[in-house]
Amino acid sequence: MNLIILGPPGAGKGTQAAFIASEQNIPHISTGDMLREAIKNGTELGLQAKAVMDAGNLVSDELIIELVKERISQDDCKNGFLFDGFPRTESQAYALDSLLENFNTSISGMIALEVDDEILISRLLERGKDSGRADDSNREIIENRISEYYNKTAILKTYYQRKNCYYGVNGIGEIDEITSRIIDVMSKI
Ligand code: ADP
Fold first, then answer.
1. Residue 86 CB less than 6 A away from ligand 1
2. To 10 degrees, the CA torsion angle through 89, 94, 99, 104?
3. From ligand 1's centre to the CA of 25, what distance in Å?
4. Which strands sit side by side in the sheet containing 2-6, from one edge to the other?
5. Does the N terminus or the C terminus of the chain have fewer Cβ atoms within 10 A?
6. How far is the C-alpha of 174 from the C-alpha of 19, rounded, in Å?
């Protein structure tokens, strides 16, 4: 199973991704977590990404593609993986397809959490109180992330629909409810 979880910031991707990955026994690869780890460790990558992330903008495609290329070459990805927060632009999706071709494989499904903007903003402001994430700390930055999503990422719905592997899930409700909707959808992939 090569899976992608998609959704605007605050849709609950991380929570549901952890569940899917453990259920399928595949690694959960969050590019946001990888970048935050790089920042924490003060690596060159972290230095390049920090200001961009703090402002709520997207990190460059080149940087992300390099990061992912290195990650999916690792042994634990042999039987599949779940991407969270990647791809986030159409060119990242193209790059992923060609990377996977080299491994003679392809994406099995994209699970997309669908949530309204107003709910997203209040969830993120709430999360910001204890997550310590600079990009969750104020409304303007949050709105910028949501607009980056609609300008650059939302197009991926069409991209994966064309490949017949887009699975939309209602992302509003209790965590458990959403998980069971995801379980339903997974049986179709
Ligand atoms: P969220 O979905 O809540 O915004 P993430 O942890 O997925 O959280 O991403 C946090 C930030 O990391 C993004 O706003 C962006 O700056 C950067 N980032 C993560 N993944 C990517 C990606 N695939 N392409 C570009 N930037 C990324």
1. yes
2. 130
3. 24
4. 28-30, 81-84, 2-6, 109-114, 166-170
5. C
6. 14
Distance from residue 31's CA to the centre of ligand 1 (Å): 7
Query: How many other C-beta atoms can be found within 10 angstroms of the C-beta atom of residue 132?
Result: 9
Average pLDDT, the chain: 96
Q: Which amino acid, 180? A: S
Residue 10 CA, closest ligand 1 atom number: 3
Interacting residues of 14 by C-beta distance below 8 A, sequence separation 6+? 30, 33, 84
For residue range 109-154, list pLDDT tens digits in order: 999 999 999 999 999 999 999 888 989 989 999 999 999 999 999 9
Q: What is the pTM of this model?
A: 0.95
